[in-house]
Design brief:
This protein is of the alpha/beta class. It has 13 helices and 15 strands. It folds into two domains: 116 residues, NAD(P)-binding Rossmann-like Domain (Rossmann fold, 3-Layer(aba) Sandwich), CATH 3.40.50.720; 176 residues, 2-Layer Sandwich (Dihydrodipicolinate Reductase, domain 2).
């Protein structure tokens, strides 16, 4: 019988439930054996039972202390991620952690040091790397057939703004939303960001100002390989989840548009119409969530490096901090200022 990776899930909110469902139904090499959530209730317990999971706890320590568990999925609140990574590493568990690892760089470094010391694997949940569209852009650029990258463009706009209750603890647009795009530009360009210039405004909801945040932003970037880039974000695009990437290179350009609800184009004398983009990330990236989970489990089984490492978790946070400093101070910020 082939070995299955025994997994404990920490955090049973929206993203935790998504990972739990995928692990049980779509990753045969994994076995979800326990779930911990500080807000454990009958709804979570019933969901766990529907997956065949009987062990449910309020305290994650129950998972860390279970010697039969090989790996953990950390899907709890961001401010708990670093602590849980350290505890899991010290318990000898491999770790999948949702992004970001933490808002505080020192805590991220503490967590990465614990992982290195323990010799366990860590994968950070930057799911868009596993999307079929974005991966094709990256693979085309990495192949070198289009030559050196010149311009990297990412558009990411949510279909509706999050509730203010979420905004006040989110870490802000750069840390919560654009952090995916900071990872994506590194992934697509194959290079590190060296300088950031950010512009942001409150154009959708004045309440964002209360939390020193913006709802609309453009960030320009310089890369170590000489390329330049631009990211645009909006907290509200009423037509759906707008997710597009492009890399223009010396010998050509590769770009992808949105996944639509369907691919039909209806042509009439009045014009040509098509379906809107898929509504939000659960629809748009569900296949990618499955793929990233499969990749993590295979890395454990094959004893290979995870495809999204701890350093991949660190760098977007540094870029996000540079973007916030740029916005606050009205100037370009070199990443070396943040790294110091």
């Amino acid at each position: 019988m082939n070995k299955k990776i025994r997994i404990g899930l920490i955090g049973a909110g929206r993203i935790g439930k998504l990972h739990g469902d995928n692990l049980v139904r779509l990753v045969p090499e994994a076995e979800l054996v326990s779930i911990a959530d500080p807000f454990l209730n009958d709804t979570i317990t019933e969901w766990a039972k529907s997956l065949g999971v009987e062990k449910c706890y309020k305290n994650a320590e129950e998972i860390f202390s279970d010697s039969s568990i090989d790996a953990v999925f950390i899907c709890s609140a961001t401010d708990t991620h670093a602590d849980y990574i350290i505890q899991a590493a010290e318990a000898g568990k491999h770790i999948f952690c949702e992004k970001p690892i933490h808002y505080d760089v020192a805590r991220i470094l503490d967590a990465l040091n614990a992982v290195e010391k323990a010799g366990v694997k860590l994968q950070v949940g930057f799911v868009r790397r596993f999307d079929h569209n974005h991966k094709m852009v990256r693979d085309t650029v990495a192949s070198g057939k289009l030559g050196k990258p010149h311009i990297v463009k990412v558009t990411s706009r949510d279909p509706e703004q999050p509730p203010m209750e979420y905004v006040k603890t989110s870490g802000g647009l750069f840390m919560d939303m654009m952090i995916h795009d900071f990872d994506m530009v590194r992934y697509l360009s194959g290079s590190e960001v060296t300088e950031v210039t950010a512009y942001g405004e409150v154009l959708i909801d004045v309440n964002f100002k209360e939390y020193d945040d913006v709802d609309t932003a453009i960030v320009m970037l310089k890369f170590a390989n000489g390329a330049i880039g631009v990211i645009d974000n909006s907290r509200r695009a009423g037509y759906g989840y707008d997710q597009r990437t492009e890399v223009h290179c010396a010998g050509g350009c590769v770009q992808v548009s949105n996944d639509l609800d369907n691919t039909a184009f209806i042509s009439t004398p009045e014009g040509v119409t098509s379906a809107k983009p898929q509504w939000f990330f659960l629809e748009r990236y569900n296949h990618a969530f499955v793929a990233e989970t499969q990749a993590f489990v295979k890395a454990i089984l094959n004893d290979t490096e995870t495809p999204v490492t701890g350093n991949d978790g660190l760098m977007p946070v540094l870029i996000a901090k540079a973007a916030k400093r740029s916005l606050d101070e009205g100037r370009s910020v070199k990443l070396s200022e943040i790294e110091e």
